[in-house]
Amino acid sequence: MSDEYFNPEIIDKIRENTNELIKDIVAAQQKAIDEINKDTETKIQQKKDEIVEAAKTKAEAEFLKEKAKQDLDLRLKLTKFRDELVYEFIVKATEEIKTMADTKEYEKSLENLLMTAVLTLGEPEVIVHCRKQDKKFFTNQFLSKAAEKVEKENKIKSKLTLSNEFVDCIGGLIVETSDRKISINNTYEKRIDRALGKIKKELSLLLTQEG
Questions:
Q1: What is the 3 state secondary structure string of 164-210?
Q2: pTM tops 0.70
Q3: For the stretch 130-152, what's the b/e string if a residue is b when 16 or more beta carbons lie within 10 angstroms of its beta carbon?
Q4: Which of 15, 39, 95, 188 could be bridged to 171 by S-S, CB 3.0 to 4.6 A?
Q5: Handedness of CA 198, 201, 204, 208 (dihedral sign)
Q6: What residues pair up with 160 in beta bridges, in sequence order?
Q7: Torsion, Cα of 153, 154, 160, 163 (10° steps)
Q8: What DSSP character marks residue 2?
């Protein structure tokens, strides 16, 4: 083997190159490690964010669920309270109507209910149904007077006939055409029932505003 292989300069050069190579390898390895660490940290942070987001979403879902439950409970309570008020209104109205049974005000009310129904029908012949105990109000004079007012209002002469078939109600009357195909229920129960929709709506708005 030649002595040049043992030349100190060559050996130093080899060592220098080897050291450089080692440094490059170490640097490359460190860079790879840094990238792995960075990627790991990113993944860990993403996982943390996912966990936090999942917890936040779950918390929001639980909140919305509880809020919906409370809102429903409140609506049920308001509806119950409203219905209690409506029931109280019906009871009071019914009791008040019963006290009117034999008064002039009740007779006037029957005349107004009759007029409204007959004018709505607009027919030349109308049959009138009333309570049995109210028959005393529906005299020929009473019916003639109502017919005259109807004729004056709509220019149609209407013949009003009292039926022998009575209605079971707390007050009011029912009128129908002579062929009985069309009728108008102007009993107090029906008029109260027709008013309930508006009353319930108004009460619901008031209760909601109060809430």
A1: CCCCCCCCEEEEEECCCCCEEEEEHHHHHHHHHHHHHHHHHHHHHHH
A2: no
A3: bbeebeebbeeebbeebbebbee
A4: 188
A5: negative
A6: 126
A7: -100
A8: -
